[in-house]
Design brief:
Elements: H1 6-11, E1 17-19, H2 28-36, E2 41-44, H3 50-63, E3 68-73, H4 82-99, H5 116-125, E4 129-133, H6 139-147, E5 151-156, H7 159-167, E6 172-176, E7 182-183, H8 198-208, E8 213-216, H9 222-230, E9 235-238, H10 252-260, E10 266-269, E11 277-280, H11 283-287, H12 300-305, H13 314-320, E12 323-324, H14 337-350
Parallel strand pairs: 1-9, 2-3, 3-4, 4-5, 5-6, 6-8, 8-9
Antiparallel strand pairs: 7-11, 10-11, 11-12
């Protein structure tokens, strides 16, 4: 039923739908359910230590014999700025007191970039698909992955980024529009420049590269899938729609925020992690709006801001928790992941006529 099957053949799947990795949200149960339904399930490994990556990947491989995707961050090591850190620590001091966390510590690096330990795990366990956010790791690592037979995906938010990824050997490109939830994948220049919407971005990247293009951002039902194919994409990556699945690791306060969200509820902020990310607005986002330019480099900002989301009191957690979600958040449908894949495929087929 699909106009293009190049991505299906490349990934070894039946339906051209990739469940977005969504670090901290994806689980082995979610990834396996999506893959068993004929799409591509993903594990977000960007924030996980090596032992947890091995555990989750092994669990997923035990639950499905179909292809799965493991996703990693490839951000540069940030430069520390003592003056900026002092300012941000002072700005967050009142929130720390309110939540009962004690003094604001010096910033650290809570999210590891893709390194030798992660490479060794991937080479040992051999998932079919490996994807990256914030660009690619060193070219030698890319070559090792390709020599091992890994299919490589990476996000691009501009045509220039897409061309760079193709030249580096990426097998398919995720064209991430500004509507997408979570972190922007921009990796060239200022992270704030990648603000092109999906409708404009996808056909331009399709025209600029020869590898398959995967549309991402604001796609939540079959209409978005059909439209993506009309723009020239060979598949879609969908994240927000899977947040309402019971297999997703979404705590009750997060789910409550999703249920009450409207089409006007999201915005992009740097104040949670230091990189632009789309979230459902809450108290922290609103009150920190004036500090966007003062946010520390990724992921230093995260080491200071994210501890606030671990407050014992649920109402406090709602104030400070990053509710990663895209612009289609108001259209969530609560159903098991396999049922959602089946529904998306049926809807996309109906819009072909």
């Amino acid at each position: 039923m699909w106009a293009r099957t190049d991505l299906l053949k490349l990934l070894g799947i039946e339906h051209p739908i990739i469940q977005a990795p969504m670090s901290s949200i994806s689980t082995p149960e979610l990834a396996a359910a999506v893959s068993n339904a004929g799409a591509l399930g993903s594990l977000g490994c960007g924030i996980l230590p090596g032992a947890a990556i091995r555990e989750q990947l092994t669990a997923t491989q035990c639950a499905t014999n179909r292809p799965i995707n493991v996703n990693f961050f490839a951000h540069p090591v940030p430069a520390h700025d003592d003056e900026a850190a002092q300012h941000m620590r002072g700005r967050l001091h009142g929130y720390y007191d309110e939540v009962g966390l004690g003094p604001v510590l010096q910033p650290g690096e809570p999210f590891p970039t893709f390194d030798q330990e992660r490479l060794d795990i991937v080479l040992e366990l051999g998932p079919k698909v490996v994807s990256f956010h914030f660009g690619l790791p060193d070219i030698k690592i890319v070559q090792q992955l390709k020599e091992a037979g890994s299919v490589l995906l990476c996000s691009a938010t501009t045509v220039s980024e897409a061309r760079q990824l193709e030249a580096a050997g990426v097998d398919a490109i995720i064209a991430q529009g500004y509507e997408a939830g979570g972190h922007r994948g921009t990796f060239t220049g200022d992270p704030a420049i990648g603000t092109v919407g999906t409708m404009a971005l996808v056909p331009q990247i399709v025209d600029a590269v020869r590898v398959p293009v995967i549309a991402a951002g604001g796609i939540f039902d079959g209409r978005g899938i059909a439209a993506s194919f009309a723009f020239g994409a060979s598949g879609v990556q969908i994240g927000t729609a899977f947040l309402a699945c019971p297999e997703a690791n979404v705590q009750p306060v997060y789910r409550a925020a999703l249920r009450s969200a409207t089409d006007e509820s999201t915005s992009v902020t740097r104040c949670f992690t230091g990189r632009p990310a789309r979230v459902v607005r809450n108290r922290f986002v609103l009150e920190m709006a004036g500090e966007e330019d003062a946010a520390l480099a990724f992921p230093l900002q995260a080491s200071l801001a994210l501890p606030l989301s671990m407050a014992a009191d649920e109402s406090r957690r709602a104030d400070f928790l990053p509710i990663w979600a895209g612009q289609g958040v108001a259209k969530l449908r609560e159903m098991p992941a396999a049922a959602l894949v089946e529904k998306l495929v049926a809807e996309a087929g109906s819009y072909r006529h």
